[in-house]
# Entry
Amino acid sequence: MSDVLAGAGLLAAAGASVGAILLPAGRNRALLMSAALILFPLLIVGDQWHSPLVADLRHHLDRLALAVVLGAAAVSGLAYVFHRRPILLPLAIVFALPFRVPLHGGGESANLLIPLYLVIAGGVLTTAIRDGAARPAGPVAAGDPPPLPVAKASSGAVPPTAPPAGGAAWLPRVLAAVVVLYTVQALYSADFSKGLQNVCFFLVPFTLAFGLLQDVRWNRRLLRWVLILVGVEAAAFVLVGSVEFVSKSLFWNDQIIRSNEFHTYFRVNSVFWDPNIYGRYLALVTVIATAALLWTRTRNAFWLLSGLILVLWIGLVPTFSQSSFLALLAGLAMLAAIRWSWRWTLGVVVIGAVGAVLVVLLVGGSGKVTSDRLNVDLSGRGNLISGGLDLFGERPVQGYGSGSFQAAYREHRANQDAPVTISHTEPVTVAAEQGLIGLAAYLSLIAVALWTLGTGLLGTAPPTGPPGRAARAAVLAAFVALLVHTLAYAGFFEDPITWVLLAVGASLAHAEAPAVRKPA
# Structure
């Protein structure tokens, strides 16, 4: 593709995807969702047409045709299932979040979220079938297909037809602005191909997932099934990781395999490519399980959740992921603030932070922290952070463009041949790539997200309440944990869990908003 065609297609895909979260359900939204679903794989193939992986597929048309047929069959089957049993759509999205499928060809490999893409495609096809021939607003006739919402709201305070207000109304708008801005800044990126891939692999499909989950209304039954699903899934991952730890062998990622040969400890990654991403997933599920434990009212549930948390902790330890431990502590602190007292929790956090700083300063007896020591302690990330800040200083307003960190870092930092793609600190990556403009959008999204997810949770309601309160506490604490993890490792926009937490949290906040509305 020419650069002009690729840029125009990228803007069209991003614009169509944000329509999925800004427009009400109906024919227009269904058409835009379908357009985004078609455009993003075409843009990737066009951009990577001469790459070894795509070239290998082009030279083996039989395999390509088989893959297309199997993919179409899977999407059609999922659409049929979701149409008949709408409750399975959110469960399928949650189930598919962790899985990446390795693709090999032409001497290259890529780990893609193919299961999640298939589920999203099935959901979009279901929406297109249901809303493609949408009728004017009015009473639903007998025999018409049911709407996508799978259950009544977790609280009866807000009618299902009431428009969202407060943070729940602003979150989709800010999220859409972030997607559009990132796409526009990819047009002048120092690595346009990388920016295009980030938009098409992550932002566009995850925005579609957000739009699909916006329509879901959560009740106790659905929330319980989500908890069971993620608990069983995480326990299965721990089992795989335990086998790896006992056998001292990993299934994939040659870099981790080689590093284990030189370390006194053995890191596991289960079915995940990166031990830190595996640790992040276990930390988030631990936070969610702890929230359910704190609000449970039955003894059986208490012991089951306690056993699950113990299993997750056993799985988290051999990841040796410092960022995951920090994320877990942040999520637990948020739960403590919601369940008991935010003042006492803040005091404990401050004391713990001061103690941690003193330990860092005094370890080794030097009494000071140097840049070289920090870089060693952070596994080389100190240089990445300082390099990212230097890039931000060179272009503080607009940055080097979306997805440009690797190219700009190597070009402007002498003798830097390390295979880096990000600074491993999300704000630094955003600042270097998108400048103050992108940083303002990123911080605005975080502020609106915390406003949406946290409204009414801190100090204004008793510890017991409707099932939506425990779920909202779990979502907020998990989002805080993920946010802390991205400060130490990155992967905020590129992780579909971020988008799912925001969608679920916004739906729950809308469901429990005050019922006072002006008459239409």
